[in-house]
Amino acid sequence: MCGIAVIVSNTEEISEGAIARMTESLQHRGPDAQTCIQLPNCHLGHTRLSIIDVSGGSQPMTEETERYWIVFNGEIYNYRELRRDLERQGWHFRTNSDTEVLLRAYQAHGEAMLTRLNGQFAFVIWDSVERQLFAARDRIGEKPLYWACSSQGACILASEIKALVASGLIQPKIDLVAVDAYLALLYVPPNRTIYENVHTLRPGHALSWKNGQLRQWSYWQPTYSQQPTSDPQELIEKLRFLIAQAVQRQMVADVPVGAFLSGGLDSSTIVALMTQHANQPVSTFAVGFGDLIDELPYARSVAQAYQTNHQEIQVSIPVGEMLERMTAVYDEPFADSSNIPTYCLAEFARRHVKVALSGDGGDELFGGYDWYRWLFASHGSKSGIGRITGLHLIALAWRVLTKLGLPFAAQKDAAVYAHYGASYQRRYPDLWEHHLAISTGLNTNRSQLWGSQKIPETAAAIRQYQPSPDVKSLDRATDFDLQCYLPGDILVKVDRAAMAHGLETRVPFLDVDLVEFVLSLPWQLRFQDGTLKYLLRQSCSNLWPDALQKRSKQGFGAPVWNWIRRPDVQNLLQRVCKPGSPLVALLPGCLAALPNLASQQVWTVLCLGLWLEERSECLNSLE
C-alpha cells in the first residue's frame, strides 16, 4: 500500500512546497520511501510501502519516453497475467512491479484497461504531452481517492483528505448534509465527504481532467440474479474454486504475508485456504479485550487445526486516549466503535508482517447479517404484502436497535419490533423507503440535536443509493450493504486503522471474479432456506473445526454501552459539549438531547465533537 498526491493546473504556477507537504502528511501510508516529482503543470508525490518488486517498483514511475507518469496505491492481483498479454503484444518491461503493468496497460488500452484489472487500487496517470490526467478507483472501494479544486483552478488529488488540506490550496467547508448523514449512519456515506468542497472518487468510478475540465463516470456496477439456474453442485464447486483462487492471488508478495483471525467463518475460511498455498506456517493474529470482547478461544482452535504461527495478545484499551487518537487517524467523523479494536489488531500484526489478509466482505457477499434471515422469511410469507412489509421492517429495526447500543434483550423484544414495524409501514409504504428510513437510525432524534436549525435534506442524499427497479427482493438489501455500508464503514475502518501502522490489508472475498459470480446467482439460491451464508457453508464448511460449525454470528464490535460510562470517556463528553464548543456551535440542541439518547447515539455525538475540536475552522463558512 502507498499514499499518492497530485496537483495539476493549466493556469497557475504550482507552489513548490505544496506537493511536499501533501506527501509528508501521507508518510504513515508509505514509510519505506517518499518521493516528489515536479513536472510542467503537474506535481506528483508518493509514499511507498514496498510489497512487490521491493527494489524496482519506485514511484512516481514513468516509461522510456517520459510521456506517461503514474502514482499508484494498491495491488493488482492479476498483474502477471496482464503482463504476459502485454508482452505478447510487443510491450517490454524494466521492472517486475504491478505499477509498470498498470502504466503499460494504459498505453495499450487507454481507459478500457479498467475492465481488465482485478485488484484493490487507486491511481493517477499523467499524460505530459496531452496534459491530461486520468484516475480510477477499484470496484468496491477498498482504496481511497479524494479530490478538490482550488479557487485558482488547480485540481488536487490524494489518498486521504488530510493531504488535500496540507496542500494549503483549499479551505475545507463543513457539509451539513454529510453531518446529518453521519448522525444517521455512523459514517459519512461514500458518495460524499464531510466537506462540501472536498469530493471522493466513488468506487467503480474513473475521472479525467484536461484544460481545467473534470469528468467522472462509472465503469462498473454490480448485477444481480442474472445467471440461469443450473446444477447446484456445479455452482458450489465453482464457488469453492473461486474463493481458493482469490486467496492464492492475494498471497502474492515479496514480503511476509499473514492473516487476521477472529475465529469467525470468514477469517477461518481465508486462513484454511492460505495454508494450502503456503510453504511455511501461515502467521495469524488475534487480539482479545478481556471479558468485553474475547474471540481468542475460537481463533486458537482454527490456528491449532491448521498449525499456523499464531500470535495473540490481551489488550486493555485506554478508551478515552484511543478516542482522541482516532480523530487523527480518520479524517472524517467515524462512529463505528470497532475501529478501536481494529486499530489495536493492526498495530499488533504490523510487528510481524507487512501484509495481512482479512475476512471482510463475507457478510455483504454471502448474506451474513441477521437481518437477511428476517428478509428471507418475509418472502416465504403467504399473508399478503402487509405481512411481508412488517417482516422486512422487523429485520431493519433489529439492525438499527443493534447499532443504537441497546441491551441484547431489548433488541429482540417482539413488542419493539411491532412498534417500529407499524410506525414505518404507515409512514413509508414503498419498500425501499422503509429500508432508507430504518437504515438512518437516528431519524427520531436528529431534530433535537439540530435544535432550532433546519434539519438538512439527508434522505434525498442517501436515496442516491436506491437501486433501479429491476433490482428486486433481497438483492435490494444486498445492494445497499455492498455499495454504501461496506465502502462507507467497513473498508474505511480497516484501511485507515491498518495504514496508520504501515500495514497492507487484503480482502479475498472482494475479488472481482468471485463477487461477480456470487451476485449473479439467483437470490433464492444465495439465501436458500433462510440460512445465513448458505453458499459459503455449502462450499467451505469442511474447512472449519467443529467448534465453529454452529457458532452464531458475532461481529468484531465494541461494548459501547460499557465504554460510554467510563470516567475518561465521560470527561471527554463534558469537554466537547461545554458551551461555546465547536460541537455546540454546530448542533446547538445537543446538550438538551443527550439525556434522551441511547449509548451508540451518545458515542456518535462524542466522536463528532472530538473531530470538530481539531478542525473547528471548517465551521467558519456557517457564520
Automatic annotation (TrEMBL):
EC number: 6.3.5.4
Gene name tied to this protein: asnB
Enzyme class: ligase
Molecular-function annotations in GO: asparagine synthase (glutamine-hydrolyzing) activity
Domain Glutamine amidotransferase type-2 per the UniProt entry, residue ranges: 2-212
SUPFAM superfamilies: Adenine nucleotide alpha hydrolases-like (SSF52402), N-terminal nucleophile aminohydrolases (Ntn hydrolases) (SSF56235)
UniProt keyword RNA-binding present: no
Catalytic activity: L-aspartate + L-glutamine + ATP + H2O = L-asparagine + L-glutamate + AMP + diphosphate + H(+)
Keyword Ligase: yes
Protein name as it appears in the record: asparagine synthase (glutamine-hydrolyzing)
